[in-house]
Design a protein that fits this description.
Elements lengths: L8 H21 L8 H4 L7 H21 L3 E13 H7 L6 E6 L4 E7 L1 H11 L16 H25 L5 E7 L13 E11 L2 E10 H4 L3 H4 L8 H11 L5 E4 L7 H6 L16 E5 L2 E11 L2 E9 L9
Antiparallel strand pairs: 1-5, 2-3, 2-4, 3-6, 5-6, 7-8, 8-9, 9-10
Helix pairs in contact: 3-6
Main location: other
GO molecular function, one term: cytoskeletal motor activity
Keywords: Bacterial flagellum, Cell membrane, Cell projection, Chemotaxis, Cilium, Flagellar rotation, Flagellum, Membrane
């Protein structure tokens, strides 16, 4: 083998130096950041359409009954729906706490209904004739009377939630177990357990408070596919809407025939004067419903009271009603 086939020491040194540089460049390219598994936990789950339908139906039916208890209740609406660790959720619960523990035996799971303390004291203030604003609580415990009001609120909310759940989900009943006053007792398995937190905003004469519904992911795991399926609003929900409409109060008025009088004649009227009508009592009068012409009727008496007998639909009745 010829001598020129061998590398000189100088060439060997240069080759080794170049190999070292390539290794350094390769190391620089392989830089990475540690993976944070917590970021996965905060990714929003697939939109649970049917769960939102349950919440909307729950709000609609519960609001009507709550107005009988809190007459100046304005609205209840969904403020937010998100997932978070149960440990993070617990830190948001103010003291004294009012946490209703709800059980779904068919799913072997639980839900937690949390009332904002400021909202509770605002409602108590209203019940006693005070303004729609909370008074200072400063960590005090609820009195027996205050707890009675809390129980009434939770009873209404949990009952309507159960009805909405059974009508749409049909997977077990939601049963009220009891009230927990220590938020930390909600952490039963792991601080990293994920819950879906539905935040409802309650508005009363400008004051805004919250109601929270926390649903552990493990509770709805068996029915997650069902919750992703949209259901037509024309089924049972249509019945709920119709039922609500049927109980909505409206004003009926029987309109006497119109006639003209001068300003002078009106000013001359005094107590005891009669205003003659230009139509016979046997002739029909117009009956309006919420200001809309709806029926034709005849004036008369019923059970000793003045009454109007409906004779027919008005010609001006909206199309599709008659």
């Amino acid at each position: 083998m010829a001598e020129e086939d061998f590398l000189s020491q100088e060439e060997i040194d240069l080759l080794l130096q170049s190999l070292g540089k390539e290794e350094e460049e390769e190391k620089e390219e392989l830089k990475y950041e540690p993976f944070n598994i917590d970021e996965l936990e905060r990714i929003s789950p697939t939109r649970l359409v049917k769960l939102e339908q349950v919440i909307n139906r729950w709000i609609a039916s519960a609001t009507a009954e709550l107005r009988g208890m809190v007459f100046n209740l304005d609205t209840i609406s969904i403020s937010d729906i998100k997932t978070e660790k149960i440990s993070d959720f617990v830190l948001k619960i103010p003291l004294p706490a009012a946490i209703a523990v709800l059980s779904i035996e068919a799913l072997n799971g639980r839900m937690y209904l949390v009332l904002d303390t400021r909202l509770i004291y605002t409602i108590i203030s209203i019940i006693f004739g005070g303004p729609a604003q909370p008074y200072k609580v400063e960590g005090k415990s609820f009195t027996k009377f205050e707890m009675k009001i809390v129980n009434n609120l939770i009873s209404i909310l949990s009952r309507h939630l159960d009805v909405a759940w059974r009508e749409l989900i049909r997977e077990g009943d939601i049963q009220f177990v009891g009230i927990e006053d220590n938020p930390r007792r909600l952490i039963t398995i792991s601080r990293n357990e994920i819950v879906i937190v539905v935040t409802l905003e309650v508005e009363i004469e400008g004051f805004k408070g919250n109601v929270y519904l926390a649903i552990p992911m493990k509770t709805i795991e068996p029915i997650k596919d069902l919750l992703r399926t949209a259901e037509s609003e024309s089924g049972g929900f249509r019945d709920v809407i119709l039922s609500t409409l049927m109980t909505t109060p409206v004003i009926l008025e029987a309109v006497f025939p119109l006639f003209r009088m001068s300003v002078g004649e009106v000013l001359e009227l005094k107590e005891g004067d009669f205003i003659p009508l230009n139509r016979k009592a046997s002739e029909s009068v117009l009956i309006k419903v919420a200001g809309v012409p709806f029926f034709e009727g005849i004036l008369g008496e019923s059970g000793g009271h003045k009454a109007v007998k409906i004779k027919s639909f008005s010609e001006a009745v909206p199309r599709g009603i008659a």
